[in-house]
Write a structure and sequence with these properties.
CATH superfamily of the largest domain: Metal-dependent hydrolases
Biased composition (Low complexity): 425-436
Organism: Occultella aeris
Domain Amidohydrolase-related: 57-375
Largest sheet: 7 strands, mixed
Helix content: 25-40%
Strand order of the largest sheet: 3-2-1-4-14-15-16
Protein name: Imidazolonepropionase
Distance between the termini: 43 Å
Number of strands: 16
Shape: globular
Biased composition (Basic and acidic residues): 411-424
Strand content: 15-25%
Number of helices: 14
Number of domains: 2
CATH architecture of the largest domain: Alpha-Beta Barrel
Structural class: alpha/beta
């Protein structure tokens, strides 16, 4: 049993601050949260591990709603996936999981791996064989034949095949269904602004998934693919970047308002590279700020593992979100209780309250005023088990001669781009993407 005492505790679904707070943990559960001064002597069991943590903030463990453990965050993650055996992929994924936990991510949703390797990793963590965050798994992202991420092994065409693939995934034990509503930036021959499935195909997949008790995440970059996913009734919209062949033009107002009025959560995959991305794409509009201003429900996600995006940059992604004029308080909710609700975990994690699983972190300072305080971890508990973070390498800036595939394609088709933009796009051939 732990009794953790800290200068600040962020409690409940709204992260209300308790000054001079305490949290009592028995096995994998939180049993009491409140002011330390209100603890009676008989609430201190003789065998309790009482820790006076001092000037730290105790808060829920962080949630990354979109990761890829099977991608290694290098310049060429797809090439590695295609070259490795399942056993090699599982070994990589176990390492990726530890990296997430090492930065305070105690829950993650893996939205695409080859076959069902992610289910193997999830179960190894759940039964204590390995350490990592609680995982929600999707298996291979369901795509059209030759469509985006076809190499994950879940191609399907037509209503009947799509339904059957959802059933196959359910049989294999996945937690969530991932649909590729549009193309993407990491698959040759795929364009992110092109819709892949018809609305009827998407609706069939959603209906089948919901019948089986699974939520549905839709990868959707292009405006038409976003519209179709919205009409089909998906639960989370991944990326939601409103890309067109002409580049980034900001959110479509009518669709943004419809998303805000719906039950859909937007998972924008805003990672620590976003600041560099915005500098390189200056003058081009991004949808995230407009979606927030129109009332969309935003959850924190990073697409960790894609090109040049290692798994230990979660906090940088939160900082990048705040730079879209999203208040820090809302950013913190997007990484805790709101994300738990979006992922179907609202009764298990995402807040410090009696009866919840003991997923929590302690950080030096106060993240309510400075999100970078989240980098200063002093304690990580995942389901009541303490974890000592691994030493992680520094995240290097993008090389000067680097331009992601997504940027190249936008600049090449952006009628407003300068000739120097287009020349740079043609000259830089590194096959990578910041926003997959």
């Amino acid at each position: 049993m732990f009794v953790l005492i800290a200068d600040r505790v962020l409690a409940g679904p709204d992260l209300e601050v308790i000054n001079g707070g305490a949290v009592i943990i028995a096995e994998d559960r939180i049993v009491w949260v409140g002011r330390e001064a209100d603890l009676s002597a008989d609430q201190y069991p003789p065998d309790a591990d009482v820790r006076w943590l001092g000037d730290v903030t105790l808060m829920p463990g962080l949630i990354d709603a979109h990761v890829h453990l099977a991608f290694d965050g290098s310049p060429h993650p797809v090439a590695r996936m295609m070259a490795e055996s399942d056993e090699q992929q599982v070994a990589l994924m176990l390492r990726s999981a530890r990296e997430l936990l090492s930065v305070g991510v105690t829950t993650a949703r893996d939205l695409g791996a080859r076959g069902y390797t992610d289910v193997v990793v999830r179960d190894a963590i759940a039964n204590g064989t390995a350490r990592g965050p609680r995982l929600l798994t999707a298996g291979g992202a369901i795509t059209t034949t030759g469509g985006h991420c076809w190499f994950m092994g879940a191609e399907a065409d037509g209503i009947d095949e799509v339904r059957k693939m959802v059933r196959r995934h359910h049989k294999a034990g996945v937690d969530v269904i991932k649909l590729m509503s549009t193309g993407g930036n990491m698959t040759p021959g795929s364009a992110p602004w092109h819709a892949q499935f018809t609305t009827d195909e998407l609706r069939a997949a959603v209906d089948e998934a919901h019948r089986l008790g699974k939520r549905v995440a839709a990868h959707a970059h292009g405006t038409e693919g976003i519209r179709r996913a919205l009409d089909a009734g998906v639960d989370t919209m991944e990326h939601c970047s409103f890309q067109t062949e002409d580049g980034m033009g900001g959110a479509d107002p009518e669709l943004a308002d419809r998303i805000a009025a719906s039950d859909i959560y937007v998972s924008p995959t805003c990672n620590f590279r976003m600041r560099e991305f915005r500098v390189l794409m200056k003058g081009r509009d991004f949808a995230l700020g407009e979606l927030y201003r129109r009332g969309a429900k935003i959850i924190a996600s990073t697409d960790a593992g894609i090109d040049n995006t290692p798994h230990h940059g979660f906090v940088g992604g939160l900082v990048a979100m705040s730079e879209f004029d999203i208040p820090i308080a809302q950013v913190l909710l997007s990484a805790t209780s709101r994300s738990a609700h979006a992922l179907g975990l609202a009764d298990r994690t995402g807040q410090l309250a009696a009866g919840y699983e003991a997923d929590l972190i302690a950080v030096a300072g106060d993240p309510r005023t400075d999100l970078r305080a989240l980098d200063e971890l002093r304690l990580v508990l995942a389901r009541g088990q303490e974890f000592t973070p691994d030493a992680l390498p520094a995240i290097e800036p993008l090389p000067e001669d680097f331009l992601p595939m997504s940027m190249r394609s936008m600049l090449e088709h952006d009628h407003g781009g300068t000739s120097s933009d287009r020349d740079a796009a043609a000259a830089m051939a590194e096959p990578a993407a910041l926003v997959r």
